[in-house]
């Protein structure tokens, strides 16, 4: 049972929250606290409990969450607010609060938020000091300068191929506000990158709690389910996460967004290999040229960059052979336009699994093999009949 202490200066709100908890089979309400000191005492007497702060609790009192998060790793906190906005979520996460729920959503979202907070706190409490290990995992960052180039499709299929080859592979969705990797893999993660905000030690147990396994063998670190939570993710946190993941996986494939902000730059700066996905339209080629000239200034040497031209066989009036000349960098791979891609996306299955005999699957397999060569990994072991067993068709997860 999850013990929960509720504190709000308005007794009606406290009573509402307690009533919701009493209907939850996994929760054991400790009652309504009359002060912030009561919350502190309750969590001291009952280690591993969840503290709940209502809308009337001020920022000074919320600082108790920061204090107890450091001194009592098993404690966790949920805040209930009048309405959600980005600044409220950022402030809450800075105080070490695991989840934020708006009053209108209490009936549906409050108890699950308490469960999630408790799960993460349990993982923190179970973590123990371990000797540092030398980082050995390799990092591939997939990026583009505009949306719609197929970047996420390349990242998910590349990760699925490497996992199928027997390499322990993690796919990190670093598109912090509108990540698509979970949908492309037909997954509904319970925990995401936002659960790591405020965590002081990225121990193995914590990392495992955030990870979501996929049937191909890869593991997903998903982007936040709520775009508002993405604003609380910092470039420093991403760098720390990548550093820890290098110790846990042989290969980390990072999907990014089309904005070259500090967050994406952190993913690029950590990369052993960077795949820039572009297309044949003039704006994409112009942006690719500008991006390539900028990458060296953020610490990404040109020899670590591979240009991937998506939909390379499209007849749009710009010959694919001219792309390398236009951007001043060789094109390493051309991926064909293929109707198998949207079909696979709608089914929530990697196209190398969904349509293994298609032209795009064969081109992605070549990209996967060349990536392994660039990173000095063992060659891909691809079955002649199919890369994966093809699953039954299913509706897309949206």
The CATH class assignment of the largest domain is Alpha Beta
What is the architecture of the largest domain at the second tier of CATH? 3-Layer(aba) Sandwich
Oligomer state equals single chain
> At the third CATH level, what is the topology name of the largest domain?
Rossmann fold
Number of domains: 2
Binned, the helix content reads: 40-55%
Describe it for me?
The protein has about 400 residues and is an alpha/beta fold. The protein has two domains: about 120 residues, Response regulator (Rossmann fold, 3-Layer(aba) Sandwich); about 240 residues, 3-Layer(aba) Sandwich (Rossmann fold), CATH 3.40.50. About 40% of the residues lie in helices and about 15% in strands. The chain is built from 16 helices and 13 strands. Helix 5 packs antiparallel against helix 8. The relative contact order is 0.11.
Notable features of this structure?
single chain, about 400 residues, alpha/beta, Rossmann fold, 2 domains, eight-stranded mixed β-sheet, five-stranded parallel β-sheet, about 15% strand, disordered C terminus
Secondary-structure map:
Elements: E1 2-7, H1 11-22, E2 27-33, H2 36-45, E3 50-53, H3 59-71, E4 76-81, H4 86-94, E5 99-102, H5 106-126, E6 138-143, H6 151-164, E7 169-173, H7 181-184, H8 204-210, E8 212-213, E9 219-221, H9 227-230, H10 235-248, E10 251-255, H11 262-269, E11 273-278, H12 282-295, E12 305-310, H13 323-327, E13 331-335, H14 340-347, H15 351-354, H16 359-374
Parallel strand pairs: 1-2, 1-3, 3-4, 4-5, 6-10, 6-11, 7-9, 7-10, 11-12, 12-13
Antiparallel strand pairs: 8-9
